[in-house]
Model the fold of this input.
Amino acid sequence: MSELNWGETLWDQWDRVQEHTEHGLEFTKKCQEFVRDRIKVEIDYAKSLRGLKKRYKLKNAEDDAGNSHSARTSIKESVRNLSRKSNTSLDDPNFSTIKAYNVFLGQLDLIARDHEIVAEGLQEKVAERLKSVQKETTNNRKNLCNTANQLQHEYKEWQVVLERNQQKYEKAAKEADAAGQAFGRVNDDMNATKAQVEKSRSQMSYRQDLMEKSKGDYIIAVETTNNNQHEYYHQRWPGLINQMQRCEENRIEELKSILIEHCNIQSSILPHITTCIETMTESCEKISPAEDSELLMEERSNQPYPGDHMFMEWNSKAPPSAFGSHNNSTRKTKRDRKKTKIFGRNVGGSSESVNKEGLENLPPEKRKKAFKEKIKEIEGKINIQLKARGALEEILELYSQKPELGSVEAMEDSRSQMDDITQTLERLQEELYKYQCYLAALMDKTAPDKPHIGSHLQADAVSITSSVSHISHVSASHSGDAELPPPDQMSPNEFDPVSPTTNEFNSDTYYEVPDNNVPPPSAPVTGLSANNQCSVLYDYVAQHDDELDIWAGEALSIVEDNGTGWVKAKRNDNEIGLVPGNYIEYVELYS
Done:
């Protein structure tokens, strides 16, 4: 408490003291709200840092050396015929940049924890204390204000008693003076009787006695009021104001301690945050471009450069070996590998490698589940290929029944597609058998018998050959030696396999198709009218938004043919777009 007290200097400014202490409570409440919002900011910031880490976390960021080693050991014991080949990718944790990035994310998590510690400390050591100080100060101020009101009420009562006795004494004195004057008049009157004189004297004595009594009461009231007033202004009232001063100064002292504690809590995490930042800096200093380049070059392809292009006549058909050699390397990236579609289905698509899916780092149970899902996926692809083969068989049967709808080229193309489907089925069956063996080895069961496929497709090949011969005969009888010219560029269905990429389990073959940069045909189909039906001869993948994907064998409706070589066609599902005119053949001929 200061040397100057409020009781001596502010004894006559009680309203100001009340207003000052009330503002102090309001300030304490504002501090409470500030700390509450500060705690929320720390919690939200920590949550945002954790969300940032989770959102930008790489796939292998949480894989430690122990988990990777145990996973590799488990795979080696379960699948003995697994080949060990490294697979570098964008998020490979062995790259120095990825290591530094993962350290960044890890330190962000630690910094988030530091801010959570700040929030917890502010809640326990600041917010709770502020709440306690606010409550205690409010109660003390309320009690002191009630005591002050009671003292003021007593002071007013003393003044009322004093004023009442004063008025009583003044009244008695006036009445006694009047009674004395009346007695003097009666006593001086010669005509007054003795009885009248005695009565007036008795009345004067009575009034004088009342005056003396009132005077004594008034003197006592004055002394009592003076004593109480002296005690009030020198002891009780200053003491109460001094108690209010101590209450206010205690509040300020507690607030000072709380704010210092707030700063200490904040500064306690700074060394750890500094350590986290230093760790980030050290990880950045370890980034080595040379090491990353060496790590990338560990996986070599050893693939030869592509051969030279052959000159082909304008009306000759390019050999399959020259198709797709426009690229600078026969090793295509996954983005560049495209699968040929037959009726909207992938023909040449191969399954993803086991290594890319990270199966070697999975525990046995999860790896078992992954193998089962892979088997289910391959079985689905086999079913798709079987449906595509069935559709081609129906088209060949239709061509056999109605030769005018088909041509030799269309039949050859269909036979090529059938061969591709057969190769794909064989490859998928081998891949399915591979994963079945992996699963059997993982479950300690006997490997299944290897299936034999291809024999059941020989009959299809014979029927296709006979259909081609039949259509060739019919075409010759109708048009002599003339043949339906193929499109200006090679059909997308004609492709050849490139060098297969190998993974950790076996080799997967990807089939290359061109980038489908199909220009408008140089020989447009003319003389045709709208609202005709046409049959698609070759697959075509749309290159622009206004074009339509088409597949060999499907039927379309012609909406418009303006003779430019591009025909606007409509599918049964009301999908409309442009298609190359020499990729289709009208079902009905018009003059």
Observations:
- Strands lie at 341-342, 345-346, 501-502, 507-508, 533-536, 555-561, 566-570, 576-580, 584-586.
